Structure prediction request, 160 residues.
Amino acid sequence: MSLYDHKFTLANGNEVQMNQYENKSILIVNTASACGFTNQYSGLQSLYEKYEPMGFVVLAFPCNQFGEQEKGSEEEIMNFCNTNYNVGFPIASKVSVNGPTTHPLYTHLKQEQPGLLGSQNIKWNFTKFLVDKTGKVIKRYSPQTKPESIEQDIVQTLNL
Prediction:
């Protein structure tokens, strides 16, 4: 199964097929509104605005599995992101990234790019996965990695 065979639901309830992102560079991030890394939304939005015209997209997947830092409803999450960070990239409905109810897209991402020492688990909010234009998951970044510090990797996937 390829990345493009997966689907997910947006926070607004619309279903999205990953194949709509073929030939795009994608940064997939599990997010939370009440996390110490939440201010990374600013960096994610800046990268999205700068590179979206060149075929780049950020996909945010809110997750409440780490310290219950994403308790709100989908509507509350969208309002928070729009009000505080003017987010323009797609925000999914809440997902699980670990455990028996892991979203299939995250199972795929973790298999393609395991964490430290081969771990399949996501350690915390704002773990990031960079996908190239062919759908290959090329890199995994820790929550501490600021979006602006991966800009060069994004540029490489866009062949700029």
